[in-house]
Design goal:
five-stranded antiparallel beta sheet, single chain, alpha+beta
C-alpha cells in the first residue's frame, strides 16, 4: 500500500493547510476564467453541503438565519455519521452541524413524524458528551462557542425561528412549511464574535473535535467495541482499525469508495479470505489522512478525462506541487521560457541535455530534492459506488527529468521548443470528437510510454498518419498543420535514427523523407503565389489536394503535382531556389529502385514538416 502511505505523508507535510480555502483557476476559454475552492479536510471531519446558516449570540440566543451560497462546509463527524445510509440513518447524527431533522427539537411537530424526536435526542446525547469534554479542554473561547450552540439546539425551536425569519417564504401552516424545499435542508451554526471568525473555518475547533474523538475511539477500543491491530498503510501496530472509509473523493462519483469490504455475501473477498480483515487491516487515522490528502490533491491539481482522474505530485521544501505529465507543470513552464532563448538544437542529445539542465536548475531554484520521489497515479470509477487505482508509478525527480528530457529530445522536429499536453496529442490522433473513453485510454497509453519504453505504439502512429495525409478533412489549415507536426514528432520518436535530426538534414536521402520534402516545396510555392493573387481566398494547393494519393503512389502523383506547379513556379519570387532544391532532391533518389512508387512511411511527414519549417525560417532570416 505504498501509494496510500504517500498520501498520508502528503497530509502530514501539509497540515498547515488544514481547513484553509484556496482556489484553483481554470482557463475555460481565452480571457475566461473559473475558480474552484479546495481545502485540506482535517481527520474526523467531512465536507457537508449546508444550505442554511443559523447565527447565534454568545449567550445562545437566535441572531438570524440565511440561505448560503458557499454550501460546502467542513463539519465534525463520527465514523458512523460519515458513512450513514439506509433505514437506520435517522439515528446516526453528526456532532454539531447536520440536517434539520437531527438538530431541530421541533422538527417532529412540523413534519408529523415522531421518529425524528428520537433523532434529536440522539443528537443531543452525543453533543452533550462533547461539551463535557470541552469544559476541561483549556480553550474557553471554544467551550463558550460550543456551549452557545448546545444551549440553542436544546432550548430553542429552530423550525419556528426559521419560519419567522422567512426562510420558508410566506408559508405559515405546518403543511406548507413541510413542503418547502428548505425544510429538509442541512444547517451550519455560527456564533458571532468580535473577531468575526466563522466557527466552521476556525482551526481551533477542528483540533478540539479531533482530540475529543481520538479519546472516544480509545475508550471504544478499550472496551472491545473497536478492533486494534496492525495498520497496513503505515506499518504501525496496536492502532485503532476501521472497515468504514470515506467517500466523496471523486467529484463525478460522490458515493464511490476506494476501499470497501462490506459485501460479505458476494465476491469482494470471498474465495480468497474468510473475513475482510484477513485481506488487510487499515488504521482509522491513516485512512482518514490518506483520503483527505487524495481529495485535496485531486481538486488542487488533478486532471480528469471521462471517468478517469490523473494526478502527479512531488513534495518539495515548500509545498506539494503539480508535476503532471498530462498537462503543463511549473518546471516545464520554466523550460519553455529558457529554451526559447537557446539556439543549440543540432542533435537529439543536445536538446535533451539542454532540457535536462533547465529542469534541474528550475528544481533547485524551487528547493526540490532531486532524490525526492515523483508520484503518478490514475483513478477510475467504472461502476457506481466504487473506484480504484488503475496505474501507479513512483520515481526520483532525477529519473523523471531524465525521462522527459530524453523524450523531448527524440520528438524535436524543428526549432520550436514546445511542450504539448497529452490531451491535445490525443485530439490530434483521433480528432476533436473522440469519445471520453478512448481519450482517457490514450492519455494513459502516452503517459506510460513516456515514462517507460518510449516506443510509440503503431496503433497511434497509424491513426495520426491517416489523418495527417488527408488535409481536405480539416476545417482550417492551422489545425491540419498542427496534426502534421504532431505526427512528425511521434514518427521521429518511433524511428529514432541518428540521421533524422531536429532540423532538416539535406544529406539524408531516405525515399519517404525525400518525397516529403518535395511535397513541402510544391506546397509552399503554390501557397505563396495564391496568397498574393486576388480571388483565390480559401483555395487548396495541389500538394494538399493530392496528398493522400501521393502517400500511396508518390512517383505517379508527383508527376501530376509537378506539372500543375509550373505556372506557380513562373510567378513565384523563389522559383530558382525551389527548382534547384527539387532537382537536388530528385537526383538523390535511386532511379533504379523498383520500390520507388511504393507507399510512403511516416518519414514522409517528418521530411514534409522539416522542409516547410526550414523554408520559412531561411526566408525570415534573409529578410
Amino acid at each position: 500500500m505504498s501509494w496510500l502511505s504517500e498520501f498520508v505523508d502528503v497530509y502530514n507535510q501539509n497540515e498547515k493547510n488544514l481547513g484553509k480555502t484556496n482556489y484553483r483557476v481554470y482557463h475555460l476559454k481565452k480571457d475566461v476564467e473559473a475558480k474552484k475552492a479546495f481545502q485540506m479536510l482535517p481527520i474526523s471531519h467531512i465536507f457537508f453541503n449546508c444550505q442554511l446558516q443559523i447565527d447565534l449570540k454568545m449567550d445562545g440566543s437566535f441572531a438570524g438565519a440565511s440561505v448560503v451560497d458557499d454550501q460546502r462546509t467542513i463539519v465534525p463527524a463520527t465514523i458512523e455519521s460519515s458513512t450513514r445510509s439506509g433505514s437506520g440513518a435517522y439515528l446516526v447524527p453528526n456532532p454539531i452541524d447536520d440536517k434539520l431533522q437531527y438538530v431541530a427539537r421541533d422538527f417532529s411537530d412540523w413534519s408529523g413524524e415522531e421518529k425524528f424526536a428520537e433523532s434529536h435526542n440522539k443528537y443531543l446525547e452525543q453533543f452533550k458528551d462533547y461539551l463535557d469534554f470541552l469544559e476541561d479542554y483549556g480553550d474557553q473561547d471554544v467551550y463558550q462557542t460550543i456551549w452557545a450552540i448546545f444551549h440553542y439546539v436544546s432550548e430553542g425551536d429552530i423550525i419556528q425561528d426559521l419560519q419567522a425569519n422567512k426562510i420558508f417564504g410566506d408559508a405559515v401552516t405546518k403543511k406548507d412549511v413541510a413542503k418547502n424545499k428548505y425544510f429538509n435542508s442541512s444547517v451550519r451554526f455560527n456564533v458571532r464574535n468580535s473577531e468575526n471568525i466563522k466557527r466552521f473555518e476556525d482551526r481551533r475547533f477542528f483540533d478540539a473535535w479531533i482530540r475529543y474523538y481520538q479519546q472516544v475511539l480509545k475508550d471504544s477500543a478499550s472496551c472491545g467495541e473497536l478492533n486494534v491491530g496492525t495498520d497496513y498503510i503505515t506499518g504501525a501496530q496496536n492502532v485503532i482499525l476501521t472497515n468504514k472509509h470515506p467517500k466523496g473523493i471523486l467529484d463525478n462519483a460522490a458515493n464511490a469508495k476506494l476501499i470497501s469490504a462490506n459485501d460479505s455475501t458476494n465476491f469482494t473477498f470471498k474465495g480468497r479470505f474468510l473475513t475482510a480483515d484477513e485481506a488487510a487491516t487499515i488504521g482509522y487515522e491513516a485512512s482518514q489522512k490518506a483520503h483527505a490528502a487524495m481529495k485535496w490533491l485531486l481538486t488542487k491539481q488533478g486532471f480528469k478525462i471521462g471517468n478517469r482522474y490523473y494526478l502527479a505530485w512531488e513534495v518539495n521544501g515548500k509545498d506539494t506541487t503539480d508535476l503532471s505529465i498530462v498537462n503543463q507543470n511549473p518546471l516545464f513552464a520554466l523550460a519553455q521560457k529558457q529554451l526559447a532563448e537557446k539556439s543549440e538544437i543540432n542533435t537529439n542529445e543536445n536538446i535533451a541535455e539542454n532540457l535536462r539542465k533547465v529542469l534541474i536548475d528550475g528544481a533547485k531554484e524551487d528547493n526540490y530534492s532531486l532524490q525526492g520521489a515523483v508520484h503518478l497515479i490514475e483513478l477510475e470509477s467504472p461502476v457506481n459506488g466504487r473506484f480504484g487505482v488503475v496505474y501507479y508509478q513512483s520515481m526520483s525527480l532525477q529519473q523523471y527529468i531524465n525521462k522527459f528530457s530524453a523524450w523531448y529530445g527524440k520528438i524535436a522536429v524543428d526549432d520550436r521548443q514546445s511542450f504539448f499536453g497529452l490531451k491535445r496529442v490525443c485530439y490530434d490522433i483521433y480528432g476533436d470528437k473522440v469519445d471520453d473513453k478512448r481519450l482517457a485510454a490514450t492519455v494513459s497509453q502516452l503517459a506510460h510510454m513516456i515514462l517507460g519504453s518510449q516506443i510509440v505504439p503503431w496503433s497511434l502512429l497509424s491513426a495520426i498518419y491517416n489523418r495527417a495525409i488527408r488535409p481536405a478533412s480539416f476545417d482550417d489549415n492551422k489545425s491540419w498543420h498542427r496534426v502534421v507536426r504532431t505526427a512528425a514528432k511521434l514518427f521521429k520518436a518511433y524511428y529514432d535514427e541518428g540521421e533524422i535530426k531536429p532540423m532538416l538534414n539535406d544529406n539524408y536521402h531516405d525515399r519517404s523523407y525525400s518525397f516529403g520534402r518535395l511535397l513541402a516545396i510544391a506546397d509552399v510555392i503554390e501557397e505563396g503565389v495564391l496568397q498574393k493573387s486576388e480571388n483565390n481566398e480559401g483555395r487548396v494547393t495541389n500538394a494538399k489536394r493530392y496528398m493522400s494519393s501521393f502517400a500511396q503512389r508518390p512517383l505517379d502523383t508527383w508527376k501530376i503535382i509537378y506539372t500543375n506547379l509550373q505556372p506557380y513556379l513562373r510567378k513565384s519570387d523563389y522559383s530558382f531556389k525551389a527548382s534547384k532544391l527539387i532537382d537536388e532532391i530528385f537526383a538523390s533518389l535511386d532511379a533504379e529502385d523498383k520500390h520507388l512508387n511504393d507507399p510512403l512511411n511516416g518519414k514522409f511527414l517528418i521530411g514534409y514538416s522539416q522542409q516547410r519549417n526550414n523554408w520559412y525560417q531561411k526566408k525570415t532570416t534573409s529578410k
